[in-house]
Structure formats: structure tokens, C-alpha cells
């Protein structure tokens, strides 16, 4: 009883002990906040990664050609682990080069070309969520929408606006298509003029006319482009059929291929002569592009785009032949995909699986069965992906197939975050250890100060163990109070972390948490009770450890000498 | 634990039986109820920088129950050391201490602790009150030491009543809530006496109880000790260097150069 009483009295009369309480408190609070924020980041990031990747990915080791007959593979997979699997879809993933024209310059980007089934949404759960057209979010489609793309980031309330997206869709495509049309006519005109020039030159090459004609023909040649430009602006293609299309009219445009044919045929255009692709009327195979491929941040804070839905891009990728040859095809951007993981957003381009298989020669012409490089598997809720992975690894030859969970796939990133958390924890725990040394020093002081009292208690019959108990209890009380206050403070801090960040931002005039950098709207924070328990227990242990030495010293004091102590 | 029936006649404190000293089985107490304190050939040497300084050189003396003995000697004659040895605060280099028919100087630490709590009371020249506790709490401290948290808590009313009565008896009924530093020297010493008596000891060891007090106050304290000795039969061993104080005792033991001088 005297232990409790004295413990309590010492606690109340020794304000120096507050210093160690505060250091324990700060250490605990900081650890709780840091762990909560790191856990929040990790969770958010895992969410995003998991939103992009399927639970389990079944891949061919031959990433170029893949494996034959994904349906057969899926049946086998179902045989092995069908009970755990909710959905599956084959994909083809190849590296590709994207190029498109922006301001009359060709821009190229290395991308990851992914052929997907429209069923993908059911496998990579969040895939659809990241699209920019509300309809596409409901039902994935590779058809270009008329318009209605989000002009604001739908995933975030306080996001930058994207005014250019208002034009996206067919509206933009038609406008663009007409420019293409005019340009083609203009080019045709130039060719015609050049041919004419050549012909005239050849005629003039006869010695008698040469001297006179040179002065006349050359000014003509220079003037020709101007003339061509004028005529194209008027929408009148000289030399083309009389029905040459007027700008913006779909009805008239029906006949434009013939017009173009007549204009271009004689000069050996690259386009196939049978069909001229007119962007005003039709789209190529749809492609959904990662948003960061063509997005930039304008100085006024809005997001600007190099491409919009409706633009055509060209993709170059290898075929499956031996050796692989690069082939290219035109795709139409139908939507953007924004996972907010920059590494995915700046490299993924999704195209229809079948089309990609066809282009790459992955379909057996006799059986019409294709190849795929991977099968994305979604496991049933509550099933651990690693279990499915291990079953599949067991059932399929490891030389030919690679099975991994989404965690394995992003192992390096997740491990990096984990390492960061671990290092922070070690550093912060050292802070609490420093607080522990503070307690140690203060306790030695208190024991020295209380030497006589210890002697008195021993003279009254208190045992060494009892004296030790006073100081251990004292240390434990400091630990409990310190970590308790730290716990409450830390939890409050985590709870109001965004408000605190705002206030700090307001005071310092510098935004503490810039959503543009972190891609998160708010500072994510998750408090795991287990972590908090560990932190508090650790702090308590340190407080007790720090009080053991002084307490033992107090217990060993000789009563007579302690009584004599002045 | 069997009890040795002792007769402590403290009116306010007489409550039930007290465990035998050191908690040894009753049968070993050969002297029965006669709680004689006896020192046999006590020696004690202090070492200071490898020079052995003999303090006690074979002290023999005996205190009968109910006696009020004063140990008198010059400063440095070893009287305080002797008192510490008698109170089992220190161990003699040689010799034996017997109390109530048992040898107590070589008891295990825990039993010596219990002896000091339950059977011996001690007061000191510098009072040695705990500054963080109030008068009442200081008096209660031996009770707290003697009992566990739960048993103390259950009987806390009774303990507090006992302590308050004791303080009343030493004339401090109005000072229960005061801290030691708010008391005068005499009041502090009386608090210390109350604390020494709270566990109804059979032996009171007093180390210069008046040494830090003026004459009048010192005399009051001695008067109080006399009264306790007379009315309650409390055995008292008092160390002092003041002959006039020592004269109040039943018997005077003179300590000269670590030896008891023949009377």
C-alpha cells in the first residue's frame, strides 16, 4: 500500500518527471501518426495496384507468343482451383511504341499494349472505375462516344479541371477529320502541281524555249501552294469530282472517298486504293490510353491534353513470327484511363483482345483459336490469392508458366514502402528509447534525493523488493501516463490530420500536402489497433526497463547508510 | 501463524493478537512471554580507507521487558551503532543479539523486516518523517508496510482510526493533515513516536530523541516516553549523550570506547 501511496505522491510532487512523460508521449504520438499515415498510404496504394491488377496472373514465360488456346487453359485452371475462382479473362500484353501527331510533329512513347476482353471489368475489379466517360464506367466499350467525357477528375472532389475534355468524342473527331480531309486535298493539289511543273519543265527542256520559259515557270511554281491553300479553304478541291465534300457535311462526305480516290489514284498514294479511311465517319479500333501518356499540367492548374478521345494514334508492336516483325496499325483513342498510379497511367494502352491477336498473327487460321500471353484471375472473396497461386504453380509446368499474385507483381514497390515504414519505426522507437534514458537519469536523481526516505522505509521494515516496487511502479506510471496521453494525442492528430495540415499550410503559406504530388485527395491514415498496442507496449517496456536500474539501486541501499545520508 | 500473547497496554491500540517476533513458530520462544533483549559480545568495525575502526568491541547487556534503559556515551562511542544493531538495521561483525528467546541478528532479511515492522518501533534524532506524506499518513506507513494492499484497503477505516487515536494521545489530534515541514520539531518527534507505536511494538528503540530539540521540548518528549513506559509497559532503549535526559530512565548503560562500562 505504501508503495502505491508513495508512488502517487512522488508522481505528484516531482514535476521533473513530466519531462520524461512528455518525451514518452511525443514518441508514442509520433509513432502512431507516422504508422497511421504510412499504413494509409500503403493501403491506398495497394488498393490502386489491386484495382489495376487481377488477384492472380497466370502468364506464359514466352511473353511474345504466349500460349495457345486460352480457353483450354482456363478449363484446366478451373479444374485445379475452380472453387476459389470467381472470374477469368485472357489478355495479351506486348511492348509497343505509340506515335501520334501533335502540332505537326510526331510524338512517340513507349507503352505497354494490353489486349483485353470486354469482360475484363469483372476480373480487375476497379478497371472501369478509372475511365473518363460515365457510360464507359458502367459498361466498358471500345466505341467512341459522341461526347460527354468528364471535364473534371471524377475520382477527386478538389481536382484540376480539364476543359479540353469537353470537346472529346465524335465532336472532336469530326473537326479533326475535316482538317485531315482538307490537308489530303491540299497535298494532292501540291502533287498535281508538281507533276504539272515537271511536265512543263520537260517541255521547256528543249533548248529553244529554255531561256524564255525559265523566267515564267518558276514564279508559277512558287505561287502554286498559295493557290492550293486558298482553294482548300474554300472547300473546293480543284481537279476532284464536282461532288467534292463541303466541310462538316456527313451526307456529302459519303461520296468523299470517291472524290479522294480520283484525286489521289494517279499519284500512288500510300492508302489502299479500295477504301479510304475517313476519320469524319468512322473510327479505327478503339484504344483506351493511360491518361498520363498525353496529359500535362497547364500553368493555370488545369490539365491539358496532347490527345483527346477521337484522335487517331499509331501503335507499332511485334508480331509473333520468327523473327518478330514490327507492324503498325491505327487506333482511335476512345477513352482515358486514370488509376492515379503514374507508372501505370503513363504506359498502359488497352485495345480489344481479338484485334490485337489478329494483328499479331496469334490466331490459328484453320481452327480460329487464338493465343494469349496471360490469364487474369479473380479469386472469390475471402480466398487468399497465394493459395490459388500455389495450386496453379503445382499443376502447370513451371518452365512454361509463371503464376503470381498481384502482390508478387508489385513486390518491389510494396517492399520499398514496407522498408520505409520499418526504418521510420526504428528511428522513432529510438526516440522513445532516448526518452527512456531521460527517465533513467531522472530516476537516478530521484533515488539519490530520496535516499534518506528509503532508509526510513527500510528502518520501518519495508523490504528491498517493496522499495524497488515503488520506483518500478513510478516508472510504469510515467510510461502509462506518457503513452496514454501520447496515444490520445496521436489518435486525435490522426483523426484531424487533414485539418491540421490545412492549418499548417495556412500558417506557413506552403501547402503541406499537395494532392497534385501525391495523387491522393487527403492524407490517408489508417489506425491498426495491433500496431497501436505494440507501440504502447513498447513504450511501457522502455519506461519500465529504464526504471529497473535506479529501482534496484534503491533496493540495495543499506538502511544505516541511507539514514545517515544528508 | 501462532501467536505469542503479549500484553501491550496501549489503550487506543489494543486490538487482538500480534504475531510472534520474526514469525517463528511459537515453540522456539524459550523465554515464553518474557521478551528479553540481550546483546552478547557485540562487535562492529567500520572500514575507512582500509583502516579498520573498531566501534563496538564486545558489548554485553540485557534489557528486561518493561524497562526504560538509557545508553549514554560520548559522541563516537558507538551508541548509535549499537542501537542499529539491536534494531537489526545492521549486522554485527561478531556477537549475537537475542530477543524473546531467539537469535535475531542472523535471521533472513524478510524476517528481520517483519520484526522491525511488527515488534520494534524506532525513533530518531532527525525524526525521519516522510516529507511527501501527511502526519496521519506517516503514522500509517508501518501499517501499510505490514499489510498487503487489499487487506490494508479493507481495514483502512480501522487503521486510520487507530492512527488518529495515537496522534491524539501524543497531542497531535489537530495536526492530522499537516505535512512534516509544517510542524515544529517537537511535533515531528511526537509524530515519529506515534509512527513507532502504531503497530503496537513491544520494544521502542530511540536514537537521541531529544538531540535536535530545545530543553523544554526535549523534556516533554521524555515525559511522553516515560508515560508510555509506565502506563503501557513499553520496553524502551534510548540512546543519548545528555546526562539529564538519561537520568529520566530506569537504568543507564554507559558506553565507553565500544565497551559497556561497569555501573
Account of the 3D structure:
The complex is a heterodimer of chains A (566) and B (263). Chain A is of the alpha+beta class and 566 residues long. Chain A has 3 domains: 2-47 and 412-564, no CATH class; 55-121 and 289-406, no CATH class; 171-267, no CATH class. In chain A, 53% of the residues lie in helices and 15% in strands. Chain A has helices spanning 2-13, 16-52, 70-81, 134-138, 170-204, 207-233, 250-253, 256-264, 342-345, 353-360, 385-395, 406-409, 411-449, 451-459, 464-495, 497-508, 515-518, 529-556, 559-564, and strands at residues 56-60, 67-68, 85-102, 105-116, 285-290, 295-297, 303-305, 312-318, 326-337, 348-352, 371-372, 374-379, 401-405. Chain A is elongated and about 135 Å long. Mean pLDDT of chain A is 80; it is low at 223-269. In chain B, strand 4 and strand 5 form a beta hairpin. In chain B, the strands form 2 sheets. In chain B, strands 6-7-8-3-9-10 form a 6-stranded mixed β-sheet, with helices on both faces. Chain B has a 4-stranded antiparallel β-sheet with strand order 2-1-4-5, with helices on one face. Chain B has a single domain (21-261), classed as Rossmann fold, CATH 3.40.50. Chain B is globular, with a radius of gyration of 18 Å. The chains are: A alpha+beta (566), B alpha/beta (263).
Q: Could you tell me the mean pLDDT of chain B? A: 82
What structural category do the secondary elements of chain B indicate?
alpha/beta
Q: Indicate the radius of gyration of chain A in whole angstroms.
A: 37 Å
Average residue pLDDT of chain A: 80
Walk me through the topology.
The complex is a heterodimer of chains A (566) and B (263).
Chain A: H1 2-13, H2 16-52, E1 56-60, E2 67-68, H3 70-81, E3 85-102, E4 105-116, H4 134-138, H5 170-204, H6 207-233, H7 250-253, H8 256-264, E5 285-290, E6 295-297, E7 303-305, E8 312-318, E9 326-337, H9 342-345, E10 348-352, H10 353-360, E11 371-372, E12 374-379, H11 385-395, E13 401-405, H12 406-409, H13 411-449, H14 451-459, H15 464-495, H16 497-508, H17 515-518, H18 529-556, H19 559-564
Parallel strand pairs in A: 4-10, 5-9
Antiparallel strand pairs in A: 1-12, 1-13, 2-11, 3-4, 3-8, 3-12, 5-10, 6-7, 8-9
Helix pairs in contact in A: 1-15, 2-13, 2-15, 2-18, 5-6, 13-18, 15-18
Chain B: E1 37-48, E2 51-63, E3 68-73, H1 79-86, E4 94-99, E5 102-103, H2 109-118, E6 120-123, H3 135-146, H4 149-154, H5 156-169, H6 185-197, E7 203-207, H7 215-232, E8 235-240, H8 243-246, E9 251-256, E10 259-261
Amino acid at each position: 500500500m505504501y508503495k502505491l501511496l508513495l508512488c502517487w505522491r512522488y508522481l505528484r510532487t516531482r514535476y521533473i518527471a513530466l519531462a520524461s512523460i512528455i518525451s514518452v508521449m511525443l514518441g508514442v504520438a509520433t509513432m502512431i501518426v507516422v504508422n497511421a499515415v504510412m499504413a494509409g498510404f500503403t493501403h491506398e496504394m495497394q488498393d490502386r495496384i489491386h484495382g489495376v491488377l487481377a488477384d492472380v496472373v497466370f502468364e506464359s514465360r514466352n511473353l511474345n507468343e504466349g500460349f495457345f488456346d486460352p480457353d483450354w487453359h482456363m478449363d484446366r485452371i478451373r479444374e485445379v482451383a475452380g472453387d476459389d475462382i470467381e472470374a477469368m479473362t485472357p489478355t495479351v500484353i506486348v511492348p509497343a511504341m505509340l506515335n501520334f501527331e501533335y502540332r505537326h510533329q510526331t510524338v512517340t512513347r513507349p507503352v505497354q499494349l494490353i489486349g483485353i476482353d470486354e469482360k475484363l471489368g469483372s476480373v480487375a475489379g476497379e478497371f472501369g472505375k478509372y475511365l473518363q466517360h460515365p457510360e464507359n464506367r458502367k459498361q466498358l466499350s471500345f466505341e467512341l462516344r459522341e461526347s460527354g467525357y468528364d471535364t473534371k477528375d471524377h475520382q477527386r472532389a478538389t481536382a484540376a479541371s480539364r476543359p479540353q475534355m469537353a470537346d472529346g468524342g465524335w465532336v472532336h473527331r469530326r473537326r479533326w477529320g475535316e482538317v485531315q480531309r482538307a490537308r489530303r486535298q491540299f497535298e494532292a493539289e501540291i502533287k498535281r502541281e508538281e507533276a504539272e511543273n515537271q511536265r512543263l519543265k520537260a517541255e521547256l527542256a528543249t533548248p529553244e524555249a529554255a531561256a524564255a520559259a525559265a523566267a515564267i515557270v518558276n514564279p508559277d511554281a512558287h505561287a502554286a501552294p498559295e493557290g492550293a491553300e486558298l482553294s482548300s479553304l474554300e472547300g473546293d478541291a480543284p481537279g476532284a469530282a464536282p461532288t467534292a465534300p463541303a466541310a462538316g457535311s456527313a451526307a456529302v462526305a459519303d461520296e468523299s472517298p470517291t472524290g479522294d480516290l480520283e484525286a489521289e489514284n494517279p499519284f500512288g498514294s500510300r492508302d489502299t486504293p479500295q477504301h479510304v479511311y475517313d476519320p469524319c465517319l468512322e473510327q479505327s479500333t478503339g484504344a483506351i490510353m493511360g491518361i498520363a501518356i498525353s496529359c500535362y499540367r497547364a500553368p493555370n492548374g488545369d490539365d491539358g491534353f496532347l490527345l483527346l478521345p477521337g484522335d487517331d494514334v499509331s501503335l507499332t508492336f511485334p508480331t509473333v513470327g520468327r523473327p518478330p516483325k514490327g507492324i503498325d496499325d491505327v487506333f482511335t483513342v476512345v477513352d482515358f484511363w486514370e488509376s492515379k498510379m503514374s507508372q501505370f497511367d503513363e504506359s498502359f494502352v488497352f485495345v480489344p483482345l481479338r484485334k490485337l491477336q489478329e494483328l499479331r498473327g496469334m490466331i490459328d487460321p484453320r481452327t480460329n483459336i487464338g493465343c494469349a500471353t496471360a490469364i487474369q484471375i479473380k479469386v472469390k472473396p475471402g480466398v487468399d490469392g497465394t493459395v490459388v497461386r500455389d495450386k496453379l504453380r503445382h499443376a502447370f509446368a513451371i518452365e512454361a508458366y509463371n503464376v503470381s499474385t498481384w502482390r508478387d507483381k508489385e513486390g518491389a514497390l510494396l517492399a520499398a514502402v514496407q522498408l520505409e515504414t520499418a526504418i521510420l519505426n526504428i528511428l522513432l522507437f529510438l526516440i522513445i528509447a532516448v526518452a527512456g534514458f531521460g527517465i533513467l537519469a531522472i530516476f537516478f536523481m530521484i533515488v539519490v534525493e530520496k535516499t534518506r526516505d528509503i532508509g526510513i522505509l527500510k528502518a520501518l521494515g519495508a523490504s528491498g523488493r517493496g522499495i524497488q516496487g515503488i520506483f518500478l511502479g513510478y516508472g510504469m506510471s510515467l510510461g502509462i501516463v506518457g503513452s496514454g496521453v501520447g496515444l490520445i494525442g496521436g489518435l486525435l492528430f490522426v483523426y484531424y490530420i487533414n485539418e491540421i495540415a490545412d492549418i499548417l499550410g495556412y500558417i506557413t503559406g506552403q501547402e503541406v500536402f499537395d494532392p497534385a504530388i501525391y495523387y491522393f485527395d487527403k492524407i490517408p491514415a489508417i489506425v491498426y489497433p495491433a500496431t497501436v498496442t505494440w507501440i504502447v507496449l513498447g513504450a511501457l517496456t522502455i519506461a519500465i526497463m529504464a526504471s529497473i536500474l535506479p529501482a534496484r539501486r534503491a533496493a540495495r541501499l543499506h538502511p544505516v547508510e541511507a539514514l545517515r545520508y544528508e | 501463524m501462532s501467536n505469542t500473547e503479549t500484553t501491550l497496554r496501549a489503550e487506543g491500540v489494543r486490538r487482538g493478537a500480534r504475531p510472534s517476533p520474526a514469525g517463528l513458530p511459537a515453540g522456539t520462544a524459550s523465554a515464553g512471554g518474557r521478551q528479553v533483549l540481550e546483546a552478547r559480545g557485540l562487535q562492529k568495525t567500520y572500514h575507512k580507507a582500509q583502516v579498520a575502526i573498531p566501534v563496538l568491541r564486545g558489548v554485553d547487556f540485557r534489557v528486561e521487558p518493561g524497562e526504560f534503559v538509557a545508553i549514554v556515551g560520548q559522541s563516537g562511542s558507538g551508541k548509535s551503532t549499537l542501537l542499529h544493531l539491536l534494531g537489526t538495521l545492521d549486522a554485527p561483525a561478531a556477537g549475537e543479539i537475542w530477543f524473546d528467546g531467539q537469535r535475531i541478528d542472523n535471521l533472513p532479511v524478510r524476517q528481520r523486516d517483519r520484526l522491525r515492522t511488527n515488534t520494534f518501533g524506532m525513533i530518531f534524532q532527525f525524526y525521519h518523517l516522510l516529507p511527501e506524506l501527511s502526519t496521519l499518513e506517516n503514522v500509517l506507513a508501518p501499517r501499510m508496510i505490514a499489510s498487503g494492499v487489499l487487506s490494508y484497503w479493507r481495514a483502512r477505516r480501522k487503521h486510520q482510526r487507530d492512527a488518529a487515536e495515537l496522534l491524539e494521545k501524543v497531542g497531535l489530534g489537530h495536526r492530522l493533515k499537516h505535512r512534516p515541514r509544517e510542524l515544529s520539531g517537537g511535533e515531528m518527534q511526537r509524530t515519529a513516536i506515534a509512527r513507532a507505536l502504531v503497530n503496537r511494538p513491544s520494544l521502542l528503540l530511540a536514537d537521541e530523541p531529544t538531540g535536535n530539540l530545545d530543553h523544554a521540548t526535549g523534556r516533554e518528549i521524555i515525559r511522553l516516553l516515560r508515560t508510555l513506559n509506565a502506563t503501557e509497559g513499553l520496553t524502551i532503549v534510548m540512546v543519548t549523550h545528555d546526562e539529564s535526559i538519561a537520568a529520566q530512565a530506569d537504568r543507564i548503560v554507559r558506553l565507553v570506547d565500544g565497551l559497556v562500562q561497569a555501573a
